[in-house]
Amino acid sequence: MSALLDHRRPRRIRVFERNTLAQHALEALLAVVLGLAGGAAVAFGPFWAGFVALAGLATAYGMLRFTSFGLALAVFVATILPFGTLPFKAVITPNFLELALLGLLVVWLLRLLIHPDEPLELTRLGLPLIGFIGITLFSLILGSNASPDSLTLHNYFKFVLAVLFFFSIANCVRTPEQARLVLRLILIGGAVSALIGLVLFALPDALALQLLVALGRIGYPTTGRVLRYVADDPNGVERAIGLAVDPNSYGGMLALVGAFAVTQAVAERPVLPRRWLYAMAGAMALATFLTQSRGALGGLVVGALYVAVMRYRKLLWPMVGAVLAVIMLYLLFGVGANFVTRVTEGVQFRDQANQMRLDEYQNAIQIIQRYPVFGIGFGKSGPDIDLGVGVSSIYLALAERVGLVGLFWFLGLLAAFYTRSVPAMRQAFTHGAPERGAALLGLQAAITAALAVGLLDHYFFNIEFSHMVALFWGTIGLALVLETVQAPADVPSSA
Known about the structure:
2 strands; 2 domains; 71% helix; single chain
Protein backbone atom coordinates (compact mmCIF):
# COMPACT_ATOMS: atom_id res chain seq x y z
CA MET A 1 0.00 0.00 0.00
CA SER A 2 2.81 2.37 0.92
CA ALA A 3 4.65 1.56 -2.29
CA LEU A 4 1.51 2.24 -4.25
CA LEU A 5 1.13 5.65 -2.65
CA ASP A 6 4.77 6.42 -3.32
CA HIS A 7 4.27 5.39 -6.93
CA ARG A 8 1.32 7.72 -7.39
CA ARG A 9 2.77 10.83 -5.80
CA PRO A 10 5.29 11.65 -8.58
CA ARG A 11 2.45 11.36 -11.12
CA ARG A 12 0.51 14.08 -9.33
CA ILE A 13 3.63 16.20 -9.22
CA ARG A 14 4.20 15.76 -12.93
CA VAL A 15 0.59 16.77 -13.67
CA PHE A 16 1.00 19.84 -11.52
CA GLU A 17 4.24 20.73 -13.21
CA ARG A 18 2.71 20.21 -16.65
CA ASN A 19 -0.22 22.49 -15.82
CA THR A 20 2.07 25.15 -14.40
CA LEU A 21 4.31 24.92 -17.46
CA ALA A 22 1.29 25.26 -19.74
CA GLN A 23 0.13 28.36 -17.86
CA HIS A 24 3.58 29.93 -18.10
CA ALA A 25 3.70 29.08 -21.80
CA LEU A 26 0.33 30.79 -22.35
CA GLU A 27 1.50 33.85 -20.44
CA ALA A 28 4.68 33.98 -22.51
CA LEU A 29 2.74 33.56 -25.75
CA LEU A 30 0.36 36.32 -24.72
CA ALA A 31 3.26 38.61 -23.91
CA VAL A 32 4.88 37.92 -27.30
CA VAL A 33 1.67 38.49 -29.26
CA LEU A 34 0.78 41.70 -27.46
CA GLY A 35 4.38 42.85 -27.61
CA LEU A 36 4.42 42.41 -31.38
CA ALA A 37 1.08 44.19 -31.65
CA GLY A 38 2.38 47.02 -29.49
CA GLY A 39 5.54 47.30 -31.53
CA ALA A 40 3.54 47.48 -34.74
CA ALA A 41 1.25 50.08 -33.21
CA VAL A 42 4.22 52.24 -32.20
CA ALA A 43 5.88 51.85 -35.59
CA PHE A 44 2.86 52.50 -37.76
CA GLY A 45 0.41 54.32 -35.49
CA PRO A 46 0.21 57.44 -33.32
CA PHE A 47 2.64 58.00 -30.46
CA TRP A 48 0.16 57.01 -27.77
CA ALA A 49 -0.48 53.59 -29.32
CA GLY A 50 2.43 52.15 -27.37
CA PHE A 51 0.87 53.17 -24.08
CA VAL A 52 -2.41 51.57 -25.14
CA ALA A 53 -0.58 48.36 -26.03
CA LEU A 54 1.27 48.39 -22.70
CA ALA A 55 -2.01 48.87 -20.83
CA GLY A 56 -3.53 46.02 -22.85
CA LEU A 57 -0.59 43.76 -21.99
CA ALA A 58 -0.88 44.56 -18.28
CA THR A 59 -4.64 44.02 -18.34
CA ALA A 60 -4.40 40.71 -20.19
CA TYR A 61 -1.68 39.47 -17.83
CA GLY A 62 -3.74 40.47 -14.80
CA MET A 63 -6.80 38.66 -16.13
CA LEU A 64 -4.76 35.54 -16.88
CA ARG A 65 -3.23 35.47 -13.43
CA PHE A 66 -6.26 36.51 -11.41
CA THR A 67 -9.87 35.92 -12.49
CA SER A 68 -10.98 38.43 -9.84
CA PHE A 69 -9.18 41.11 -11.84
CA GLY A 70 -11.23 40.24 -14.92
CA LEU A 71 -14.47 40.22 -12.94
CA ALA A 72 -13.68 43.62 -11.43
CA LEU A 73 -12.84 45.04 -14.85
CA ALA A 74 -16.09 43.75 -16.40
CA VAL A 75 -18.25 45.05 -13.54
CA PHE A 76 -16.62 48.48 -13.42
CA VAL A 77 -16.78 48.99 -17.17
CA ALA A 78 -20.44 47.87 -17.29
CA THR A 79 -21.48 50.23 -14.50
CA ILE A 80 -19.14 53.21 -14.97
CA LEU A 81 -17.85 53.42 -18.56
CA PRO A 82 -20.13 51.21 -20.64
CA PHE A 83 -19.57 52.83 -24.05
CA GLY A 84 -15.82 53.38 -23.90
CA THR A 85 -13.98 52.02 -26.96
CA LEU A 86 -10.38 51.67 -28.05
CA PRO A 87 -9.02 55.07 -29.15
CA PHE A 88 -8.41 54.26 -32.80
CA LYS A 89 -10.50 53.82 -35.90
CA ALA A 90 -11.15 50.39 -37.36
CA VAL A 91 -13.77 48.67 -39.47
CA ILE A 92 -15.35 47.53 -36.22
CA THR A 93 -13.91 49.13 -33.11
CA PRO A 94 -14.32 46.95 -30.00
CA ASN A 95 -15.40 48.61 -26.79
CA PHE A 96 -13.86 48.07 -23.36
CA LEU A 97 -16.71 45.90 -22.11
CA GLU A 98 -16.51 43.64 -25.15
CA LEU A 99 -12.79 43.13 -24.57
CA ALA A 100 -13.26 42.57 -20.82
CA LEU A 101 -16.03 39.99 -21.31
CA LEU A 102 -14.16 38.24 -24.11
CA GLY A 103 -10.93 38.22 -22.12
CA LEU A 104 -12.67 36.82 -19.05
CA LEU A 105 -14.33 34.10 -21.15
CA VAL A 106 -11.05 33.16 -22.85
CA VAL A 107 -9.18 33.04 -19.55
CA TRP A 108 -11.85 30.77 -18.09
CA LEU A 109 -11.65 28.42 -21.09
CA LEU A 110 -7.83 28.40 -20.92
CA ARG A 111 -7.99 27.49 -17.25
CA LEU A 112 -10.26 24.58 -18.12
CA LEU A 113 -7.64 23.38 -20.59
CA ILE A 114 -4.79 23.83 -18.13
CA HIS A 115 -6.72 22.25 -15.26
CA PRO A 116 -8.90 19.55 -16.82
CA ASP A 117 -9.88 18.31 -13.36
CA GLU A 118 -11.55 21.65 -12.57
CA PRO A 119 -15.35 21.22 -12.72
CA LEU A 120 -17.41 22.94 -15.40
CA GLU A 121 -20.31 24.70 -13.70
CA LEU A 122 -23.37 25.13 -15.88
CA THR A 123 -26.02 25.40 -13.10
CA ARG A 124 -29.60 24.33 -13.72
CA LEU A 125 -30.12 27.34 -16.00
CA GLY A 126 -26.99 26.81 -18.09
CA LEU A 127 -28.36 24.57 -20.82
CA PRO A 128 -31.71 26.42 -21.08
CA LEU A 129 -29.78 29.69 -21.39
CA ILE A 130 -27.68 28.21 -24.20
CA GLY A 131 -30.98 27.25 -25.80
CA PHE A 132 -32.13 30.87 -25.49
CA ILE A 133 -28.96 32.04 -27.25
CA GLY A 134 -29.70 29.49 -29.97
CA ILE A 135 -33.19 30.95 -30.45
CA THR A 136 -31.76 34.46 -30.81
CA LEU A 137 -29.21 33.18 -33.35
CA PHE A 138 -31.91 31.46 -35.37
CA SER A 139 -34.00 34.64 -35.36
CA LEU A 140 -30.95 36.65 -36.44
CA ILE A 141 -30.32 34.36 -39.41
CA LEU A 142 -33.99 34.01 -40.32
CA GLY A 143 -34.74 37.73 -40.07
CA SER A 144 -31.75 38.73 -42.22
CA ASN A 145 -32.10 35.95 -44.82
CA ALA A 146 -28.76 34.61 -43.60
CA SER A 147 -26.97 37.86 -44.51
CA PRO A 148 -26.96 40.30 -41.56
CA ASP A 149 -24.97 43.49 -41.99
CA SER A 150 -21.62 43.90 -40.22
CA LEU A 151 -22.91 46.34 -37.59
CA THR A 152 -25.77 44.03 -36.61
CA LEU A 153 -23.36 41.08 -36.43
CA HIS A 154 -21.00 43.04 -34.19
CA ASN A 155 -23.80 44.16 -31.89
CA TYR A 156 -25.15 40.62 -31.75
CA PHE A 157 -21.68 39.31 -30.89
CA LYS A 158 -21.52 41.77 -27.98
CA PHE A 159 -25.00 40.66 -26.91
CA VAL A 160 -23.94 36.99 -26.84
CA LEU A 161 -20.80 37.87 -24.88
CA ALA A 162 -22.98 39.73 -22.38
CA VAL A 163 -25.26 36.70 -21.92
CA LEU A 164 -22.22 34.43 -21.55
CA PHE A 165 -21.14 36.58 -18.61
CA PHE A 166 -23.55 34.30 -16.73
CA PHE A 167 -21.18 31.37 -17.26
CA SER A 168 -18.06 33.41 -16.47
CA ILE A 169 -19.57 34.35 -13.12
CA ALA A 170 -20.73 30.79 -12.44
CA ASN A 171 -17.26 29.35 -13.09
CA CYS A 172 -14.96 32.07 -11.76
CA VAL A 173 -16.74 32.58 -8.42
CA ARG A 174 -16.02 29.47 -6.36
CA THR A 175 -15.80 30.57 -2.72
CA PRO A 176 -17.76 32.79 -0.31
CA GLU A 177 -14.86 35.25 -0.32
CA GLN A 178 -14.95 35.55 -4.12
CA ALA A 179 -18.73 35.97 -4.03
CA ARG A 180 -18.43 38.68 -1.40
CA LEU A 181 -15.82 40.45 -3.54
CA VAL A 182 -18.07 40.52 -6.60
CA LEU A 183 -21.00 41.77 -4.52
CA ARG A 184 -18.84 44.61 -3.24
CA LEU A 185 -17.64 45.40 -6.76
CA ILE A 186 -21.23 45.74 -7.99
CA LEU A 187 -22.10 48.10 -5.14
CA ILE A 188 -18.96 50.21 -5.61
CA GLY A 189 -19.45 50.37 -9.38
CA GLY A 190 -23.05 51.53 -9.02
CA ALA A 191 -22.09 54.09 -6.35
CA VAL A 192 -19.24 55.54 -8.43
CA SER A 193 -21.51 55.77 -11.46
CA ALA A 194 -24.17 57.54 -9.37
CA LEU A 195 -21.57 59.98 -8.01
CA ILE A 196 -20.36 60.79 -11.52
CA GLY A 197 -23.94 61.40 -12.62
CA LEU A 198 -24.61 63.70 -9.65
CA VAL A 199 -21.42 65.70 -10.24
CA LEU A 200 -22.15 66.16 -13.95
CA PHE A 201 -25.72 67.15 -13.15
CA ALA A 202 -24.56 69.74 -10.59
CA LEU A 203 -21.96 71.30 -12.90
CA PRO A 204 -22.90 74.12 -15.28
CA ASP A 205 -24.16 72.69 -18.54
CA ALA A 206 -21.27 74.16 -20.53
CA LEU A 207 -18.64 72.53 -18.28
CA ALA A 208 -20.49 69.20 -18.15
CA LEU A 209 -20.76 69.24 -21.94
CA GLN A 210 -17.05 69.96 -22.27
CA LEU A 211 -16.15 67.03 -20.02
CA LEU A 212 -18.43 64.62 -21.87
CA VAL A 213 -17.20 65.75 -25.28
CA ALA A 214 -13.64 65.06 -24.11
CA LEU A 215 -14.65 61.38 -23.93
CA GLY A 216 -15.04 61.44 -27.70
CA ARG A 217 -11.48 60.08 -27.89
CA ILE A 218 -12.82 56.77 -26.58
CA GLY A 219 -15.96 56.55 -28.64
CA TYR A 220 -18.44 58.76 -26.80
CA PRO A 221 -20.68 61.13 -28.81
CA THR A 222 -19.34 64.63 -29.38
CA THR A 223 -22.29 66.14 -31.26
CA GLY A 224 -26.03 66.02 -31.02
CA ARG A 225 -27.70 65.03 -27.75
CA VAL A 226 -24.64 64.78 -25.50
CA LEU A 227 -26.53 66.31 -22.58
CA ARG A 228 -30.13 65.18 -22.26
CA TYR A 229 -33.24 67.14 -21.32
CA VAL A 230 -36.91 66.40 -20.79
CA ALA A 231 -38.68 66.49 -24.18
CA ASP A 232 -35.24 67.23 -25.72
CA ASP A 233 -35.67 70.89 -24.80
CA PRO A 234 -32.29 72.45 -23.83
CA ASN A 235 -34.21 75.18 -22.01
CA GLY A 236 -36.12 72.62 -19.97
CA VAL A 237 -35.23 70.21 -17.17
CA GLU A 238 -31.87 68.47 -17.45
CA ARG A 239 -31.70 64.69 -17.04
CA ALA A 240 -28.84 62.91 -15.27
CA ILE A 241 -26.98 60.52 -17.58
CA GLY A 242 -23.63 59.79 -15.93
CA LEU A 243 -21.42 58.18 -18.55
CA ALA A 244 -24.24 56.00 -19.90
CA VAL A 245 -25.21 58.24 -22.87
CA ASP A 246 -28.94 57.59 -22.37
CA PRO A 247 -30.78 58.64 -19.17
CA ASN A 248 -33.21 55.73 -19.33
CA SER A 249 -30.50 53.07 -19.59
CA TYR A 250 -28.57 54.90 -16.85
CA GLY A 251 -31.65 54.86 -14.64
CA GLY A 252 -32.24 51.16 -15.36
CA MET A 253 -28.71 50.28 -14.28
CA LEU A 254 -29.08 52.36 -11.11
CA ALA A 255 -32.41 50.69 -10.34
CA LEU A 256 -30.84 47.23 -10.58
CA VAL A 257 -27.81 48.02 -8.42
CA GLY A 258 -29.81 50.34 -6.15
CA ALA A 259 -32.30 47.60 -5.24
CA PHE A 260 -29.37 45.45 -4.12
CA ALA A 261 -27.86 48.37 -2.19
CA VAL A 262 -31.15 49.01 -0.36
CA THR A 263 -31.28 45.34 0.67
CA GLN A 264 -27.74 45.45 1.99
CA ALA A 265 -28.44 48.67 3.91
CA VAL A 266 -31.08 46.91 6.05
CA ALA A 267 -29.47 43.45 6.16
CA GLU A 268 -28.23 41.84 9.39
CA ARG A 269 -24.83 41.01 7.87
CA PRO A 270 -24.05 43.40 4.99
CA VAL A 271 -21.00 42.94 2.79
CA LEU A 272 -19.88 46.54 3.38
CA PRO A 273 -20.07 48.85 6.39
CA ARG A 274 -23.65 50.00 6.87
CA ARG A 275 -22.83 53.72 6.86
CA TRP A 276 -21.29 53.27 3.42
CA LEU A 277 -24.36 51.44 2.21
CA TYR A 278 -26.66 54.22 3.38
CA ALA A 279 -24.62 56.72 1.37
CA MET A 280 -24.47 54.42 -1.67
CA ALA A 281 -28.19 53.67 -1.67
CA GLY A 282 -29.01 57.35 -1.17
CA ALA A 283 -26.73 58.45 -4.02
CA MET A 284 -28.18 55.86 -6.39
CA ALA A 285 -31.76 56.74 -5.44
CA LEU A 286 -31.10 60.45 -5.98
CA ALA A 287 -29.35 59.86 -9.31
CA THR A 288 -32.23 57.62 -10.41
CA PHE A 289 -34.70 60.40 -9.58
CA LEU A 290 -32.63 62.95 -11.51
CA THR A 291 -32.68 60.81 -14.65
CA GLN A 292 -36.38 61.73 -14.83
CA SER A 293 -36.94 58.14 -15.92
CA ARG A 294 -40.31 57.08 -14.58
CA GLY A 295 -39.66 53.46 -15.46
CA ALA A 296 -36.34 53.40 -13.59
CA LEU A 297 -37.72 55.07 -10.48
CA GLY A 298 -40.73 52.74 -10.54
CA GLY A 299 -38.39 49.75 -10.89
CA LEU A 300 -36.34 50.86 -7.88
CA VAL A 301 -39.53 51.22 -5.81
CA VAL A 302 -40.74 47.77 -6.92
CA GLY A 303 -37.36 46.27 -5.99
CA ALA A 304 -37.51 47.85 -2.52
CA LEU A 305 -41.10 46.65 -2.07
CA TYR A 306 -39.98 43.13 -2.97
CA VAL A 307 -37.38 43.26 -0.20
CA ALA A 308 -39.94 44.59 2.31
CA VAL A 309 -42.54 41.95 1.45
CA MET A 310 -40.10 39.03 1.40
CA ARG A 311 -38.10 39.78 4.53
CA TYR A 312 -37.48 43.27 5.90
CA ARG A 313 -40.84 44.82 6.82
CA LYS A 314 -38.98 47.67 8.54
CA LEU A 315 -38.11 48.99 5.09
CA LEU A 316 -41.76 49.99 4.56
CA TRP A 317 -41.56 52.81 7.11
CA PRO A 318 -38.64 54.67 5.47
CA MET A 319 -40.39 54.27 2.11
CA VAL A 320 -43.61 55.73 3.50
CA GLY A 321 -41.61 58.52 5.15
CA ALA A 322 -39.82 59.31 1.88
CA VAL A 323 -43.13 59.50 0.02
CA LEU A 324 -44.63 61.81 2.66
CA ALA A 325 -41.51 64.01 2.61
CA VAL A 326 -41.69 64.32 -1.18
CA ILE A 327 -45.39 65.21 -0.97
CA MET A 328 -44.73 67.87 1.67
CA LEU A 329 -41.83 69.38 -0.28
CA TYR A 330 -44.01 69.48 -3.37
CA LEU A 331 -47.02 71.04 -1.62
CA LEU A 332 -45.07 73.60 0.44
CA PHE A 333 -42.18 74.54 -1.84
CA GLY A 334 -43.04 73.14 -5.26
CA VAL A 335 -39.99 70.85 -5.21
CA GLY A 336 -40.23 68.17 -7.88
CA ALA A 337 -43.15 69.86 -9.61
CA ASN A 338 -41.77 69.03 -13.05
CA PHE A 339 -41.41 65.38 -12.17
CA VAL A 340 -44.91 65.19 -10.68
CA THR A 341 -46.24 66.75 -13.88
CA ARG A 342 -44.33 64.18 -15.96
CA VAL A 343 -45.70 61.30 -13.91
CA THR A 344 -49.25 62.64 -14.12
CA GLU A 345 -49.03 63.17 -17.87
CA GLY A 346 -47.40 59.77 -18.25
CA VAL A 347 -50.17 57.96 -16.40
CA GLN A 348 -52.72 59.77 -18.56
CA PHE A 349 -50.63 59.11 -21.72
CA ARG A 350 -50.75 62.81 -22.55
CA ASP A 351 -47.00 63.42 -22.90
CA GLN A 352 -45.02 62.98 -26.10
CA ALA A 353 -42.90 60.08 -24.80
CA ASN A 354 -45.86 57.90 -23.86
CA GLN A 355 -47.72 58.76 -27.03
CA MET A 356 -44.68 57.48 -28.93
CA ARG A 357 -44.73 54.37 -26.73
CA LEU A 358 -48.37 53.75 -27.67
CA ASP A 359 -47.43 53.91 -31.36
CA GLU A 360 -44.52 51.53 -30.70
CA TYR A 361 -46.80 49.10 -28.86
CA GLN A 362 -49.27 49.08 -31.75
CA ASN A 363 -46.48 48.49 -34.27
CA ALA A 364 -44.99 45.73 -32.12
CA ILE A 365 -48.33 43.94 -31.77
CA GLN A 366 -48.81 44.01 -35.55
CA ILE A 367 -45.30 42.64 -36.08
CA ILE A 368 -45.95 39.85 -33.56
CA GLN A 369 -49.20 39.00 -35.33
CA ARG A 370 -47.40 38.71 -38.68
CA TYR A 371 -44.27 36.95 -37.37
CA PRO A 372 -45.41 35.19 -34.20
CA VAL A 373 -43.04 32.22 -33.98
CA PHE A 374 -39.43 33.49 -34.27
CA GLY A 375 -39.94 37.22 -34.83
CA ILE A 376 -38.09 39.48 -37.24
CA GLY A 377 -34.54 39.26 -35.92
CA PHE A 378 -32.25 42.15 -34.99
CA GLY A 379 -31.96 44.33 -38.08
CA LYS A 380 -32.45 48.07 -38.02
CA SER A 381 -35.42 47.88 -40.31
CA GLY A 382 -38.33 45.51 -40.34
CA PRO A 383 -39.42 43.19 -43.15
CA ASP A 384 -42.49 45.29 -43.86
CA ILE A 385 -42.22 48.91 -44.94
CA ASP A 386 -45.47 49.87 -43.24
CA LEU A 387 -44.29 48.92 -39.75
CA GLY A 388 -41.63 50.53 -37.56
CA VAL A 389 -39.14 48.50 -35.54
CA GLY A 390 -38.28 49.03 -31.92
CA VAL A 391 -40.43 49.22 -28.82
CA SER A 392 -39.88 50.49 -25.27
CA SER A 393 -40.72 47.25 -23.48
CA ILE A 394 -38.45 44.30 -22.92
CA TYR A 395 -41.35 41.85 -23.28
CA LEU A 396 -42.71 43.27 -26.53
CA ALA A 397 -39.15 43.66 -27.81
CA LEU A 398 -38.52 39.96 -27.13
CA ALA A 399 -41.72 38.92 -28.88
CA GLU A 400 -40.93 41.28 -31.76
CA ARG A 401 -37.30 40.20 -32.24
CA VAL A 402 -37.30 36.49 -31.32
CA GLY A 403 -41.00 35.69 -31.46
CA LEU A 404 -43.32 34.17 -28.91
CA VAL A 405 -40.98 31.17 -28.69
CA GLY A 406 -38.18 33.43 -27.46
CA LEU A 407 -40.46 35.39 -25.12
CA PHE A 408 -41.86 32.29 -23.41
CA TRP A 409 -38.40 30.75 -23.22
CA PHE A 410 -37.17 33.91 -21.48
CA LEU A 411 -40.10 33.89 -19.06
CA GLY A 412 -39.46 30.22 -18.37
CA LEU A 413 -35.83 30.99 -17.48
CA LEU A 414 -37.00 33.66 -15.04
CA ALA A 415 -39.58 31.34 -13.50
CA ALA A 416 -36.87 28.70 -13.02
CA PHE A 417 -34.59 31.31 -11.46
CA TYR A 418 -37.14 32.43 -8.86
CA THR A 419 -38.33 28.90 -8.04
CA ARG A 420 -34.72 27.96 -7.20
CA SER A 421 -33.47 31.19 -5.69
CA VAL A 422 -36.34 32.04 -3.34
CA PRO A 423 -36.27 28.68 -1.45
CA ALA A 424 -32.46 28.93 -1.28
CA MET A 425 -32.76 32.41 0.22
CA ARG A 426 -35.26 31.27 2.84
CA GLN A 427 -33.15 28.23 3.65
CA ALA A 428 -30.10 30.44 4.16
CA PHE A 429 -31.93 32.60 6.71
CA THR A 430 -33.36 29.51 8.42
CA HIS A 431 -29.99 27.75 8.72
CA GLY A 432 -28.09 30.68 10.19
CA ALA A 433 -26.45 32.18 7.11
CA PRO A 434 -27.86 35.74 7.12
CA GLU A 435 -25.13 37.16 4.88
CA ARG A 436 -25.85 34.70 2.10
CA GLY A 437 -29.60 35.06 2.62
CA ALA A 438 -29.44 38.86 2.36
CA ALA A 439 -27.21 38.63 -0.72
CA LEU A 440 -29.67 36.27 -2.43
CA LEU A 441 -32.61 38.50 -1.51
CA GLY A 442 -30.79 41.58 -2.80
CA LEU A 443 -29.94 39.94 -6.12
CA GLN A 444 -33.56 38.81 -6.50
CA ALA A 445 -34.65 42.39 -5.79
CA ALA A 446 -32.20 43.63 -8.43
CA ILE A 447 -33.68 41.32 -11.07
CA THR A 448 -37.21 42.23 -9.96
CA ALA A 449 -36.36 45.92 -10.35
CA ALA A 450 -34.93 45.26 -13.82
CA LEU A 451 -38.06 43.37 -14.88
CA ALA A 452 -40.23 46.24 -13.61
CA VAL A 453 -38.10 48.73 -15.55
CA GLY A 454 -38.55 46.46 -18.56
CA LEU A 455 -42.26 47.24 -18.67
CA LEU A 456 -41.38 50.66 -20.10
CA ASP A 457 -37.87 50.15 -21.48
CA HIS A 458 -36.02 47.62 -23.59
CA TYR A 459 -32.42 48.06 -22.53
CA PHE A 460 -32.02 44.72 -20.72
CA PHE A 461 -32.71 43.07 -24.10
CA ASN A 462 -31.04 45.34 -26.60
CA ILE A 463 -28.00 44.30 -28.60
CA GLU A 464 -26.77 47.91 -28.65
CA PHE A 465 -26.71 48.09 -24.82
CA SER A 466 -24.67 45.01 -24.01
CA HIS A 467 -23.66 46.35 -20.58
CA MET A 468 -27.30 46.16 -19.45
CA VAL A 469 -27.56 42.59 -20.75
CA ALA A 470 -24.33 41.66 -18.96
CA LEU A 471 -25.49 43.12 -15.65
CA PHE A 472 -28.83 41.30 -15.93
CA TRP A 473 -27.47 37.83 -16.65
CA GLY A 474 -24.40 38.31 -14.47
CA THR A 475 -26.69 39.08 -11.52
CA ILE A 476 -28.68 35.90 -12.15
CA GLY A 477 -25.46 33.89 -12.45
CA LEU A 478 -24.15 35.30 -9.18
CA ALA A 479 -27.40 34.45 -7.40
CA LEU A 480 -27.18 30.84 -8.59
CA VAL A 481 -23.56 30.67 -7.43
CA LEU A 482 -24.62 31.78 -3.95
CA GLU A 483 -27.04 28.84 -3.82
CA THR A 484 -24.19 26.37 -4.03
CA VAL A 485 -21.19 27.97 -2.30
CA GLN A 486 -20.81 27.21 1.36
CA ALA A 487 -22.64 29.76 3.46
CA PRO A 488 -20.18 32.23 5.05
CA ALA A 489 -22.09 32.08 8.33
CA ASP A 490 -18.95 31.84 10.44
CA VAL A 491 -17.03 34.49 8.53
CA PRO A 492 -17.45 37.92 10.16
CA SER A 493 -18.64 40.69 7.90
CA SER A 494 -16.63 43.85 7.44
CA ALA A 495 -19.57 45.71 8.96
